[in-house]
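Page 42, continued from yesterday. The earlier attempt failed because a stray header line got pasted into the input along with the sequence. Redoing it now with the clean sequence only.
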Amino acid sequence: MMQHPAKKEFTIKVSQVPGVRVMGIKISTTMAEAPADCAKLWHETFMPRVQEVPGGNGSSYGVSEVDCQAGILYYWAAVPTTQDAVALPGMEAFDLPAGLYAQCLVESLADIKAAYDFIYSAWLPGQTEYAPDYRARCYEFYPADFPSTGAFYIY
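This time it went through. Structure tokens are written below.
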């Protein structure tokens, strides 16, 4: 008899999060291609240009927007910027709104798929107090110490 591996569990904390203006580069991909496409976006496309963005503080954001009907994932590699920043050529500047967010600590990039699966397949359907606001983008927050710790958050 084949055993299925236990699903990983994560801790969700709901809290008020301040808004932030970010600037970054967007790709369109599919869920199947996202792991490779997003890594390429970060390492080959965005990181060589990150120093051009005014106001960065060492942290970064991976911002997602899903078009379920078309099967498309829009993903931005971004960093915080100044409130009055105008988008640089090939980049977009936009605001991640303040609000009540579910925050999930993820210890490693290796766990990113398991974390998203937990949030949307276990935690969200398993509670009744909160409902998703699909007008807001989901995002990953990579703190300045991410390169040394590997830990980040999904909001």
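Notes: The two ends are 38 Å apart (CA to CA).
Reminder to self: strip header lines before submitting.
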